[in-house]
Amino acid sequence: MIEKPQFCRFSRAHIETLLDEHPRMERRLLGLASNELATAQDQMVLLGRKTAREKLASFLIMLSRRAKTRSQQGNPVHVPMTRTDIGDYLGLTIETVSRTFTARCKAQLIELEPEHSVRLLDIEGLVAIAGD
């Protein structure tokens, strides 16, 4: 089961004081911010330059990698989004998302499973399609 995140709020002055007292924490936050910028850049490339099949393959690989970095199972991939949401995220129509999922299933690269999961049958093939 996936836990819901919890948030808290601090004033900027409090955070700056905390970071002054703990420089390792400041470096860690800078590293996290850098990773987020790289992820945003990857998303822009995904939206701007890739075909529908490349976008879907990249999306599934990204979800798998993200799950693994969180010490979760990377295959099958949990996809907690509707096809409409996936289309919005990837810049595709729901019809294109559905056709692309169907084509990847027929090519035996993926298998749709219950509970919003997708089994990656040929990860190397998906990586090749994604160009990652």
SSE string? HHHEHHEEH
Structural class: mainly alpha
How do the strands of the widest beta sheet line up side by side?
1-3-2
- Quick one: overall form? elongated
Put simply, the count of helices is 6
CATH architecture of the largest domain: Orthogonal Bundle
Strand content: 5-15%
Total number of strands: 3
Radius of gyration: 18 Å
Specify the CATH class of the largest domain.
Mainly Alpha
Poorly predicted spans: none
**Main β-sheet: number of strands, strand sense, barrel status?**
3 strands, antiparallel
Mean of pLDDT:
88
Quick recap:
The chain is built from 6 helices and 3 strands; from the N terminus they run H-H-H-E-H-H-E-E-H.
Keywords:
132 residues; mainly alpha; Arc Repressor Mutant, subunit A; 64% helix
